[in-house]
Design goal:
Blueprint (H helix, E strand, L loop, with lengths): L1 H8 L20 H9 L14 H9 L2 H16 L6 H30 L5 E4 L2 E4 L10 E4 L8 E13 L1 H4 L5 E2 L5 E2 L4 E13 L5 H8 L9 H31 L4 H12 L5 H19 L3 E3 L3 H8 L2 E4 L6 E12 L5 H14 L5 H9 L7 E9 L4 E7 L5 E7 L1 H4 L5 H11 L3 E7 L14 E12 L3 H10 L3 E5 L4 H10 L9 E2 L7 H10 L2 E3 L3 H13 L4 E5 L5 H6 L2 E5 L4 H6 L2 E3 L7 H39 L7 H20 L11 H30 L5 H24 L5 H19 L1 H7 L7 H27 L3
Parallel strand pairs: 9-16, 9-19, 16-18, 17-18, 19-20, 20-21
Antiparallel strand pairs: 1-2, 1-3, 3-7, 4-5, 4-6, 4-7, 8-21, 10-15, 11-12, 12-13, 13-14, 14-15
């Protein structure tokens, strides 16, 4: 798709709709915009941040297991009392809950997507104004600055050092210099300079819209949790089919029973094999996670990002905008080499006025030195994170020509220059220092900085985020390694990190000394904590190096220089106030610009993963014992001991209700890999023990009871054993105990006692314990099974300690 679209980008336009001429310098007029709207030449592609309501209903209703259960439910409604059809009503209720929760999540996502939507600047009637993406029309003149993303296709009309990164489209990391007449493709973004382009393709014709047809922003893929559950369900299906066939033959052919009774007991054996609630509960847990984070102004653009961030063991932080706030203050200007302070202030004012889209550093200079009038700009060199400096050439008020550079002292100065020592002392205090230097070469020359004459040091103070220290401490407590990766001077970055109490910040490393070999680089990154003078490509390489060592890496950032690393990281986190390009590639956008929101995302992911792992054991224990009971019934040629109503009651009390509460409970456990293995290593032995104990009780009861009603008495005894063993599994999974977990387990046990004690409930569920010998025998077998369960879980825990 990408290459095809790129190849077709330069194709001749449709002769029926010729491309619009270049927009006039003032942009379209109001009447021209109205004409294009009337013709439908509007960028009307809807922003799709989630599945539609129809897709949500279809995904929750039309499932493999709902189809199986639906057929069995229809059969039971004809051949058995309503209490044997309760499992169908439970599935309807569960499906309804799933639809409602995901619909709520959709509403949250859609509202947040509108908040975080890009607002491109469009020039109309000579006035620049921000409009929504959907209001752009064919022929609009759209202004571009550093960090802006092209939202439609077009042709460059104005360019001032305009450099556009097309790496998200072509994979080529080097920015492309654009001149008037050059094409601009939607999805690319500006890394330096500025300009404007005329929209030539809008709506579904634009390249970004073509990509959207293939991949929605809201996706449920790339999740170990969901793929693990899918794997489990695949194997369950293969186990269930032959077992169910054997059970049908056994109950309908081998045993000479009443047909309706046989059908009911056959369905009773098939239904509990299906862990249908597990898929539902996973979707509900994810959906509620989205809603919870949405209330904290955190936009989750991809659901697995909640899970992914919980698995992260290294988080790479960009200093500016993450540890520090976007704003800066000029604290001092120190003239060098006898320069006149007043003249230096005029130069700084002129440099500020020369850039229509200043970055944070230049904005601080503009605020401190607003007088930039009287000097004519003859050439401008926008700031580039690769160069580490910007510049401008002027015709001064007295007619003299001069050219100036403003940037990193250690880039513009020679290694032995005495000003570097002063810069180092200021950096050690956590201050940011820029050098103003008079350029000797042309600004567009490759060696523009060579021989530049140092004129003044500009000292800026960065504003620390008040919550950054606590957030770094949280990651430390959770054994998540934090790495500060910044383009600023390493000593200055280290000083900021030290102020926030970050371990290892005193040994900040200049990234220019990092080895190029990926393995050696990974070793250096693992040993160190703070890195300065990191280029955009190095950020990307550092993420790859950490991933090569098996780390799950999250990258935070808000600037254009962070885009490549954000895109390659396992989880990209962008600030809401960051550039449009970073918001586009990040899986998580912190709309409130608060770094302190990240712990909430980590906690939400751990809650989802840890709790689903717990409750999955409950569901799959039921699947294992149901399959084994069916096999034992076939092998021993006996009636299946349970009717659907019995297993509906057991599933509700030991799995359904408690699993819902346990899945939504707080959980701070570190996310562990290999979900399927971790679940099955407990579910298989638990299911085997439950099946063995239940069938043993059933066989003993068959020898104990005789005559009319014997089968009902045998079923009641077997049900008692299975309930007690299942309750012990629940009691183990509910650990560590809190008051509400104890109350939950006790409430489920009390409900079962009520069923056994109330006559009409006994009749409704066909449960009545006969005599005293067999019920106490059932309890005794359950106690032995519980002891074996306890020993088995401890043995598994020791064997697979993680």
């Amino acid at each position: 798709m990408t290459q095809r679209a790129l190849d077709s980008f330069g194709d001749r336009p449709d002769p029926l709709r010729p491309p619009p001429p270049p927009a006039p310098p003032g942009g379209l007029s109001t009447s021209e915009v109205a004409e294009r709207v009337a013709r439908g030449e509007v960028n009307d592609v809807p922003v799709r941040s989630s599945r539609s309501v129809t897709e949500i209903i279809r995904a929750n209703v039309l499932t493999r297991f709902n189809l199986i259960i639906g057929v069995l439910w229809a059969i039971m409604l004809f051949v058995a009392p309503i209490q044997d059809s309760l499992f169908g009503f439970v599935i309807v209720a569960n499906t309804g809950i799933g639809i409602v929760q995901e619909w709520r999540a959709k509403r949250t996502l859609d509202s947040l997507a509108v908040i975080g939507e890009a607002k491109p600047t469009v020039r109309r009637d000579g006035v620049s104004a921000e409009v929504s993406v959907s209001e752009i029309v064919l022929g609009d003149l759209i202004e571009l600055g550093p960090g802006d993303k092209a939202v439609v296709d077009g042709t460059v009309s104005e360019a001032e050092g305009l450099e556009i990164d097309e790496s998200l489209l072509t994979g080529e990391a080097d920015p492309v210099v654009k001149h008037p007449g050059d094409p601009v493709m939607s999805g690319s973004f500006v890394v330096a300079g500025g300009g404007a382009f005329t929209a030539t393709k809008v709506g579904r014709e634009a390249y970004a819209a073509q990509l959207a047809e293939e991949a929605s922003r809201f996706t449920l893929v790339q999740s170990e949790l969901r793929s693990g559950i899918s794997t489990i369900l695949k194997y369950v299906t293969w186990m269930m089919v032959p077992t169910a066939i054997g059970l049908v033959i056994s109950q309908l052919v081998v045993k000479d029973n009443n047909v309706k009774e046989s059908v009911a007991r056959t369905v009773g054996g098939i239904v509990p094999m299906i862990p249908e609630g597990l898929v539902l509960l996973t979707s509900v847990a994810f959906a509620i996670g989205v809603i919870r984070l949405g209330r904290k102004q955190c936009l989750v653009q991809e659901l697995p990002a909640i899970e992914g961030l919980a698995r992260v063991d290294v988080v790479c932080l960009d200093k500016t905008g993450t540890l520090t706030e976007g704003g800066m203050d000029v604290t001092e200007v120190r003239p060098l080499n006898g320069s006149d302070a007043g003249y230096v202030r005029r130069v700084l004012g002129a440099l500020g006025a020369s850039d229509p889209r200043p970055n944070a550093s230049l904005q601080a200079i503009i605020d401190a030195h607003p007088d930039g009038e009287g000097w004519g700009v003859t050439q401008a060199l926008p700031f580039s994170s690769a160069r580490k400096y910007s510049g401008a050439a002027f015709t001064e008020s007295d007619g003299r020509a001069s050219a100036w550079l403003l940037g990193a002292p250690d880039v513009l100065l020679d290694a032995g220059d005495p000003a570097l020592a002063e810069t180092g002392r200021l950096n050690e205090q956590g201050l940011r220092v820029l050098l103003l230097a008079r350029a000797r070469n042309a600004l567009d020359a490759p060696d523009a900085a060579s021989g530049a004459e140092p004129t003044a040091l500009v000292v800026l103070e960065q504003r620390l985020r008040p919550d950054a220290g606590e957030t770094l401490a949280y990651f430390g407590d959770q054994n998540v390694a934090a790495k500060v990766i910044s383009g600023d001077n390493a000593v200055s970055v280290g000083a900021v990190a030290q102020k926030l109490g970050m371990p290892g910040a005193e040994d900040a490393l200049d990234a220019r000394r990092l080895p190029s070999d990926p393995d050696d680089m990974a070793s250096q990154i693992e040993r160190n904590t703070v890195f300065g003078r990191v280029t955009p490509q190095q950020k990307r390489d550092m993420v790859a190096a950490l991933q090569s060592r098996g780390h799950t890496v999250a990258m935070t950032g808000d600037g254009v220089n962070d885009v490549l690393a954000l895109k390659d990281a396992d989880i990209g986190v962008s600030m809401g106030s960051g550039s449009e390009a970073t918001r586009a590639v990040a899986q998580i956008v912190l709309l409130n610009n608060s770094f302190a929101t990240l712990p909430s995302v980590v906690a939400e992911g751990r809650r989802v993963i840890g709790n689903i792992t717990r409750v999955a054991t409950l569901f799959l224990t039921k699947t294992v014992y149901s399959v084994l009971l069916a096999i034992l019934v076939v092998c021993f040629q006996v009636e299946y001991p349970f009717l659907p109503r019995h297993l509906t009651l057991l599933s509700t009390l030991t799995i359904g209700v408690p699993a819902f509460f346990l899945a939504l409970a707080p959980n701070k456990e570190r996310a562990q890999p290999h979900f399927v293995r971790r679940v099955m290593r407990y579910a298989i032995p638990s299911g085997v023990i439950a099946a063995a104990a239940t069938f043993a009780t059933y066989l003993v009861a068959r020898h104990h009871y005789a005559g009319t009603g014997a089968l009902d008495a045998e079923t009641s005894a077997a049900t008692l054993t299975l309930f007690l063993v299942s309750m012990w599994v629940l009691a183990i999974i509910a650990r560590p105990y809190t008051w509400w977990r104890i109350a939950l387990v006790a409430a489920m046990g009390l409900c079962f006692l009520v069923v056994l004690a109330v006559p009409w409930l006994q009749d409704f569920f066909a449960l009545k314990l006969v005599g005293s010998v067999m019920p106490w025998a059932a309890v005794g077998i359950a106690v032995v099974a519980a002891a074996v369960l306890e020993l088995t879980w401890r043995a598994v825990g020791r064997r697979f300690r993680s």
